[in-house]
Specification:
Elements (H helix, E strand, L loop, with lengths): L2 E5 L4 H12 L3 E6 L13 E4 L5 H10 L4 E4 L6 H6 L1 H21 L4 E7 L22 H20 L2 E7 L1 E3 L17 H13 L10 E3 L11 E2 L1 E3 H17 L5 E6 L5 E2 H12 L6 E3 L8 E2 L4 H7 L8 H14 L2
Parallel strand pairs: 1-2, 1-4, 2-3, 4-5, 5-6, 6-11, 7-10, 8-13, 9-14
Antiparallel strand pairs: 9-12
The structure holds nicotinamide-adenine-dinucleotide.
Length: 333
Amino acid sequence: MTNVLVVGGAGYIGSHMVAILLKQGFRVTVFDNLSRGHKDACEGAHFIQGNLLDFAAISGCLSAQSFDIVFHFAALAYVGESVKHPEQYYQNNVVGSVNLLAAMRKHKLNRLVFSSTCATYGEAKHLPIRETDPQVPVNPYGFSKFVVEHMLSDYAKAYGFQSISLRYFNSAGCDPLGALGERHEPETHLIPLVLREALRTKLGGHSKDTALQIFGDDYDTPDGSCQRDYVHVNDLCDAHLLAAQQLLTNDDGQAKYYNLANAVAYSVFDVVSACRRLTGQPIEYRIEPRRSGDPAVLIGDAQQAIKELGWKPHRTQLDDMISSAWNYLSKGA
Ligand SMILES: NC(=O)c1ccc[n+]([C@@H]2O[C@H](COP(=O)([O-])OP(=O)(O)OC[C@H]3O[C@@H](n4cnc5c(N)ncnc54)[C@H](O)[C@@H]3O)[C@@H](O)[C@H]2O)c1
């Protein structure tokens, strides 16, 4: 039985991955400090509460069992927070990854799937963004991931350490059965924020008292709001499984990089309209000034993942992503 370690497996994407790995018959251990995650989101996996900033803790976890591969989801992942607190981001995301890689080398484990991001590209020169396009991150979060990607490339050259970095565009949606969802506190992602506002109104809140903020309606886009490319969380997890299969069957000693995207742009106002239609709630919002570090448009080309990993995203409609997230949120209300 393949034995996998999921670092950051108690978070939103990690917990969906854990559920899929368990369903596929993998033996799964989660290592998470619960700073942003929930232990009850990874039921069925062996759980170790530990911090990547504690080298002895991650090294001890790797010495206790012989793992075949590691999935690394653990990071702080809010663009705005990273602009306000860059030190925290470089500490957690870069130093944490340095510790993980050093511990993996110490225990002769050299297969890693890494959660990277479209935020490593910064402002795109042309769209959709391809893997070969320049990476010029415009916020500390994106930069912290860019540094780790570089480390992985250097590790491949020096040590034959094999990795696949998956550059996700915006993850959205939830497990279709409604058992798992996005439980960030504070929440900063658009779809759950808009749906929380819908739920508040549904439960009797006045729509004019809205707390929903939209940052910038004066971007150079058709409706003035930012545009993003949304990918269903389960499609992201499918790509991780394919990446793991490639790493487990191929000893090429390389670091590889793939976009995970649908190449479709939805604006903030598109998301609000779709949420209004799907929830039947009015959903009011306030326009605030642009947020520093937010590129106007991010859409990606995932042809390389489709060709080389055999990835086939199945849940590409925004409505499906919103409906599954609404199903999860309204179930818990
Ligand atoms: N959500 C998105 O749209 C998106 C897009 C691109 C990339 N990503 C990347 O995907 C990964 C998962 O994102 P998410 O939305 O599930 O985030 P999340 O915050 O829900 O999950 C991250 C998990 O990592 C854990 N963690 C953080 N720092 C840790 C540390 N030092 N030691 C141990 N555990 C630690 C947290 O407790 C949490 O459970 C992140 O690396 C993020 O940068 C996410």
